[in-house]
Specification:
This protein has 14 helices and eleven strands. The longest helix has about 35 residues, at about 255-290. It has two domains: about 1-145 and about 240-275, D-Maltodextrin-Binding Protein, domain 2, CATH 3.40.190.170; about 150-235 and about 280-345, Bacterial extracellular solute-binding protein, family 7 (D-Maltodextrin-Binding Protein, domain 2, 3-Layer(aba) Sandwich), CATH 3.40.190.170. By secondary structure, it is an alpha/beta fold. It has helices spanning about 1-20, 40-55, 70-80, 115-125, 125-140, 180-185, 195-205, 215-220, 245-250, 255-290, 300-305, 310-320, 325-350, 360-365, and strands spanning about 25-35, 60-65, 85-90, 140-145, 150-155, 170-175, 190-195, 210-215, 230-235, 240-245, 290-295.
């Protein structure tokens, strides 16, 4: 009965969304995700919801969190067909619907860049953003944005992973994702998919020696109890995407599209420091739990990206994404170079700016 009522509510809300204003002169957008209560994704969608409401334009975000309307794949299918309007999830589930999203499987492609540079490429006026948006539209979806701030999946281990050679023979539990497994194998590790429910005990008894996840996931699973080292490998960007059915988006009144776009853009920017805080606070918890944190400089990432097996993986993903992997690499490099040039010019201007003349004692005397 509960499922029937939920389905009926969705149909009613979608009817208002698809055919314009309701009798109350409101347009409702059913929005859903699978994020847990209090997770960054849920905080983000609620922020969008609040901003849309504050605009008082008649647009309403009707939000169903925590998998109430289905899993990620279910929600993506529903969004494609227009059964729901908006959905949010991490990038990995989207690959089955939009092959180009596999660019986010490129290992360490973002690791050498800051959050501002990445944001300008993913959400700004870049060739990558244009091509990715076109890929979404081809799948019947409209890309609203990517939520990130240069926080990543990390590796935890009972091996001191100081150098690239230390990864050789490392038995590491990974997601059952071929691109991820190929990366770990390329740098000499032995990737081992395991059910999440089995991971803690497997780390405890030594069935596997390591695992990889975001810092908050590691804290939630209490991995500091069974792992000694926290290695900031930064191999996969922690990123959520938010999208809307393309026909629904185009059918919105221009003022409603503007309200939605503005709400998402503002929420993305406001979430960035929150993501950084979440990442830092969880790393601190792991360190206080007696884990030693290992950080790497750019030479480590350069060494990893020079491994032939990693380069081969980049080529395979580039082919699978119709060349978008190359576009991403070039866009990141160009944006970083542009930022460095702008910073250098600002420093030169600051040096050459005439100093304000200090009034003499006579001029300041009464």
């Amino acid at each position: 009965m509960k499922k029937f009522i939920t389905a009926l509510l969705v149909i009613l809300a979608l009817s208002s969304c698809a055919f314009g204003a309701s009798e109350f002169d409101e347009t409702w957008l059913v929005t859903a995700d699978t994020t847990a209560k209090g997770a960054a994704g849920q905080v983000f969608v609620q922020l969008v919801q609040e901003k849309v409401k504050a605009a008082n334009s008649g647009l309403v975000i009707d939000y169903f969190p925590n998998g109430e309307l289905g899993g990620d794949a279910d929600l993506l299918r529903q969004a494609q067909k227009g059964y729901i309007a908006i959905m949010l999830c991490q990038t990995a589930p989207v690959v089955s619907f939009i092959p180009e999203v596999a660019v986010f499987d490129l290992p360490m492609v973002f690791a050498r860049y800051d959050g501002d540079t990445i944001d300008k490429v993913l959400n700004g006026d870049s060739e990558f953003h244009r091509q990715m948006s076109a890929a979404y539209e081809k799948a019947g979806l409209h890309l609203l944005g990517f939520m990130q701030n240069a926080t990543y999946r990390l590796a935890t281990a009972n091996t001191n992973l100081q150098t690239l050679s230390d990864f050789k023979g490392l038995q590491i539990r990974t997601m059952e994702n071929k691109n991820h497994m190929d990366f770990w194998a390329a740098i000499g590790a032995e990737p081992t998919p395991l059910a999440w429910s089995e991971l803690y005990i497997s780390l405890q008894n030594g069935t596997v020696n390591a695992q990889e996840n975001a810092a908050d996931t590691c804290v939630g699973a209490h991995f500091e109890e069974v792992q000694k080292f926290l290695a900031c490998t930064n191999h996969i960007l922690y990123c959520n995407q938010i999208c809307i059915n393309d026909k629904v988006y185009k059918a919105l009144k221009p003022e409603h599209r503007a309200v939605l776009d503005k709400a998402v853009a503002e929420a993305l920017q406001e979430m960035r420091p929150k993501l950084e805080e979440i990442d830092k606070s969880n790393k601190d918890i792991l360190i206080k739990g007696n884990m030693k944190m290992i950080e790497y400089d750019n030479s480590f990432f350069t060494d990893v990206l020079s491994v032939q097996g990693v380069r081969d993986l980049y080529k395979r993903i580039d082919v699978a994404t119709n060349g978008l992997a190359s576009v991403l690499e070039k866009s990141l490099e160009a944006m970083a170079a542009e930022t460095q040039l702008r910073t250098a010019l600002e420093e030169v201007e600051a040096v050459n700016k005439p100093a304000e003349e200090t009034p003499s004692a006579e001029e300041t005397a009464e």
